[in-house]
Amino acid sequence: MSVALAMVAAVWLDAWLGEARRYHPLVGFGRLASWMERRLNPAASYGGATYAGMAAWGMLVLIPSAATFGVRQSVPLAWAWGLDVVVLYVALGRRSLADHARPIATALDAGDLSAAREAVGRMVSRDTDALDATQVAGAATESVLENGHDAVFGALFWFALFGAPGAMLFRLANTLDAMWGYRTPRYLRFGWAAARADDVLGFLPARLTALSYAFAGRFAGAMRCWRTQARRWKSPNAGPVMAAGAGALGVALGGPAPYHGRWEARPALGDGPPADAGSVRGALRLVDRGVAFWLGVMLLWGVATHA
């Protein structure tokens, strides 16, 4: 029951406080990771860059997670519970996801494409200057669906298994994948460990996220799109999440998108009309309903095991 209550408390703190405006731990972690990459990556040989990336990943992810485990084991239970709540709160980004996505939907409703492009640029890595309204809505919807896993459900899953160390392990690993997991000359070797670790850690929670989206939306459409479209996506975890999310919403996502000055072909997802402002809000509702479902299951499990 204590695990379920800690999850509820952390989700409530995230909804109430949102992300820290200043001195967010993950921002500091990102700066440290950038500093370490600049010093280790250019100095490594082409073959040695892989091992340098593995060492950097271990120092940045395994050491803090192990330290958190050690602290949690050495303090009184009440303090350990408090540590769990704080770490999970920091790892969650559900409120931040809504804070970034809602202004996009508002700008699209108002017909302010310039403001919508600027707002979506804060969520996605693709070029946004040339996107039309449908493409902006699609980019925002995709980002909400994918980050529902990365910033919410993945952390909840690993927290449910291992408490604060599990949530920290997943969130730090996911952050490094977002920073280093690119197939570019700079990161292809150095970021290999970060990308593979994120694939492994995200495998089960990604599929539970996809299932949550299915239950929270159009179940048949979500399962059909997951079954027929997910394998076409280049990411083994984003594929099920985004395909099921598109099917649950009943919208069309995917398709070509501009990255670093050129358009990249991407598979189509979903089987409905093009995305719009309603799709962005609908994706947020899928995340919220999924969180409510997960918390409900955990509370019921806690009651059943302590009855």
TrEMBL record:
Topology relative to the membrane, per the entry? Multi-pass membrane protein
Which pathway does this chain act in? Answer: Cofactor biosynthesis; adenosylcobalamin biosynthesis
**Where is this chain's protein located in or outside the cell?**
Cell membrane
Where's it mainly located? membrane
What the entry lists under InterPro entries is as follows: Cobalamin_biosynth_CobD/CbiB
Q: Which UniProt keywords apply?
A: Cell membrane, Cobalamin biosynthesis, Membrane, Transmembrane, Transmembrane helix
**TM helices/strands, residue ranges:** 44-63, 75-92, 151-173
> Pfam families attached here?
CobD_Cbib
The family note in this entry says:
Belongs to the CobD/CbiB family.
Stated role:
Converts cobyric acid to cobinamide by the addition of aminopropanol on the F carboxylic group.
This protein's name: Cobalamin biosynthesis protein CobD
Query: What is the species listed in this Swiss-Prot or TrEMBL entry?
Result: Luteibacter sahnii
